[in-house]
Design goal:
- This protein is of the alpha+beta class.
- It has a single domain, classed as Alpha-Beta Plaits (2-Layer Sandwich), CATH 3.30.70.1350.
- It has 5 helices and 4 strands; from the N terminus they run ααβαββαβα.
- Strands 1, 2, 3 and 4 form a 4-stranded mixed beta sheet that branches.
- A hairpin with a 2-residue loop joins strand 2 and strand 3.
- Helix 2 crosses helix 4.
- It starts with a helix and ends with a helix.
């Protein structure tokens, strides 16, 4: 659908406002689906909320929406061995496509902040299998 037609239709029927949290959840889910992303880094308060059992789907995501555009900042943890520039580019594309498709907002920036590297833990059973 042409964006101008969509905007004209919205003006004639009323206004649609999408909360920043909704955009944040979309961005967070799209980012974590990319291979090489271990998770999102929400900082100290986000981690405490998860410990208390409150899952925050927009953890590690900062959203700024102005009119019909949005800027996204993602704080991610990558898997050890992943090529960070490639993974970051894939995250940018995935997040941009998801937000634009689901909300109609124009994504003008997707900034990736790599906060850490996750090293996979080897279980004792796996060590025994490797030794045999």
């Amino acid at each position: 659908m042409d964006n101008n037609l969509l905007n004209d239709e919205i003006k004639s029927n009323g206004e649609i406002k999408i909360a920043d949290d909704v955009v944040g959840v979309i961005a967070g889910l799209a980012a974590t689906e990319v291979e090489g992303i271990a998770g999102m880094s929400g900082g100290f308060t986000g981690d405490i909320a998860e410990i208390l059992g409150r899952k925050n789907l927009s953890k590690g995501v900062k959203v700024s929406v102005e009119k019909n555009t949005t800027k996204i900042d993602l704080h991610v943890i990558v898997n050890y061995g992943s090529k960070i520039p490639e993974v970051s580019w894939k995250v940018q594309e995935s997040v941009k496509n998801a937000i634009e498709t689901m909300t109609g907002l124009e994504v003008i920036e997707v900034n990736i902040h790599v906060q850490g590297v996750q090293i996979q833990k080897v279980e004792p059973k796996e060590i025994e299998e490797l030794e045999d």
